[in-house]
Structures
1.
Amino acid sequence: MTCPICGTGFLLDETQAPPFCSVRCKQIDLGRWLDEEIGLPHEGEPDPEMLD
Ligand SMILES: [Zn+2]
């Protein structure tokens, strides 16, 4: 299968962090979600995307 983070092809039996090719890619994905969750609009600037 293909790693959704780096696009590398790998075998599910060989990875330590499915569905990613490596623990590193798993952490990248986790960090990406955390960034979106914690990401706050700049103070004093209303973010139009937050209204959706
Ligand atoms: Zn990867």
2.
Amino acid sequence: MSVLQELIPLKVLVIGASRGIGLGFVEQLLQYQSITKIYATYRCEESATELFSLREHHKDRLIGFPMDITDESSIVSAIKQISQQTKQIHLVIYCVGILHDGDFQPEKSLRQIVPENLIRYFQVNSIGVVLLAKHLMPLLRHKDSSMFAAISAKVGSIGDNRLGGWYGYRASKAALNMFLKTISLEYNRRCPKTIVVALHPGTTDTNLSQPFQANVPPEKLFPVSKTVNQLLEVMKNLELKDSGEFFSWDGNLLPW
Ligand SMILES: NC(=O)c1ccc[n+]([C@@H]2O[C@H](COP(=O)([O-])OP(=O)(O)OC[C@H]3O[C@@H](n4cnc5c(N)ncnc54)[C@H](OP(=O)(O)O)[C@@H]3O)[C@@H](O)[C@H]2O)c1
């Protein structure tokens, strides 16, 4: 049985909940009566205003913590605060990611490769998840079912790469996938009831995809609520044997 169908009080952690898909998960998960606490992290307060107003309406169930995933001490500090409130997390949804930011844009060709930009892609899109998995392990080592789901991207699939371009984003998502696979193997030994998966959300109407939406057919550009519902359906159907796999929004397995 998937963690979301368990009839026990569930505690959830959403990382990168300030906006986009992460905020969408918080909104949807608040509808689940079985979820008694949602710990939601944000990086900067300016972009987290919607999360804060949601928190105003759900003070008893929604708790926010600052966390910059590129700073290990910030991860440690947030998890320490969460650990003072609970000894168990049942569902972790990692929604952090970066594709562009002002002059920082995905590369169309080798001429545009800038080492500092590649490092930024890896810091945000790849390394954060393994730091999180390192520090979260004590909260996932319990007798109930649990899940550690990270939003990856199909463009991180090496087998599916037919178009090229987006060197840093693609490589950082491929690295994220390898981290998740490796985390799944260690978690299998250390917290054996935790399913670890990479999820592809499909092109979703957020700030991240906004500059690249022009050529996306309308039926393939999902509103955030649709993406979240689809991913929750996928997550509900996952079993322990699925740990370490890469799933698309429609439930299909993706090639690494
Ligand atoms: N949208 C799509 O079409 C699409 C497609 C495939 C995959 N994805 C993946 O889906 C995930 C969510 O993306 P989205 O579309 O929701 O993008 P988004 O709206 O741009 O949200 C990105 C989130 O990542 C957070 N973040 C960025 N840098 C961070 C850091 N250093 N520490 C902590 N949080 C940080 C942002 O926080 P701030 O508000 O503080 O910046 C924000 O909450 C990403 O992993 C993305 O790669 C999206």
